[in-house]
Amino acid sequence: MSRPRAVGVALLLVAGALAGCSEPGVAPAPGQISVVATTTVLTDLVHQVAGDRALVTSLVPKGGDVHTFDPRPSSLRAVAAAALVVRNGLGLDDWVAGIVEDTGTGAPVVAAAEDLPGVTYLPGRGGEGAVNPHVWMNVANAERMVAKIAGALASVDPGGAPAYAARAAAYRAQLAQLDGELHTRMAGIPAGDRTVVAFHDAFPYLAAAYGLHIDGTIVAAPGQDPSAGSVADLIAAIRRDNVRAVFAEAQFNDELARMIADETGVAVVSGLYDDTLGDPPLDTYEAIMRWDVDQVARALGG
């Protein structure tokens, strides 16, 4: 790192420490390790495995957009103090690599969604070879992420390995039960009412796992406005292909989704969660998956 950049990073860390010294939960308790995750969804998965052995901090705040996140001084401070950094990978949160480099932390970085055995990765936007990163929207994939997270925690805290293994096994059993519940809930949707449009490309794993067909997306990526021509094409496709609903996510403005739904007469399923948790009671991964599937099933006649 060049000297001007290193000095700038150091000043940011100092400024962040001064600004955040009164924030609750900044420092781990005695005997705890500090773990940083990029999103609140990952933070919950880590917490379910780590329990009280780790203080887990999310870089992207609740309701924030992981795609366009702009790191703050507190982000640098958290990563600099971490024993482990957990990211999703697959292009979703590549910006964390810059924070790791800037802080010079020696903490290992694990990409929880990458190279998971048994996962069928779906194509994403961004050219040949791109992979959709929203792997956890299929609960069976989240089970595999939990196993990888448990291994990463044990590698930085060997004394806690038995506890991590036990908690991971118990949590994976809960997720397996959840997966069965979601399949049962979605099974009630009539076969002809399973075609939808999404705000952005966040739901292919959910659709593939639970029997939906996504006919298109409103935006190529959050923060990118669609052209008038692409909106017109999408409206034509909705009318042609018996699309039954438009999905809109809680952290994004749903005005455009509602406009398209009003134009076509289809339902809007608003307030869905994918990259972020919500306020209680929607503040765990299990809760947002139950919420999403219930909202979808209701809208589609299930």
Please provide a written account of the structure.
It contains 10 helices and 8 strands. The chain has 2 domains: 3-180, Rossmann fold (3-Layer(aba) Sandwich); 188-299, 3-Layer(aba) Sandwich (Rossmann fold), CATH 3.40.50. The chain is globular and about 60 Å long. It has helices at residues 3-20, 40-50, 73-81, 96-103, 139-156, 161-187, 204-210, 228-240, 255-264, 285-299; strands at 33-37, 54-58, 84-87, 109-111, 195-198, 213-217, 245-249, 267-272. With 302 residues, the protein is of the alpha/beta class. The strands form 2 sheets. It has a 4-stranded parallel sheet with strand order 2-1-3-4, with helices on both faces.
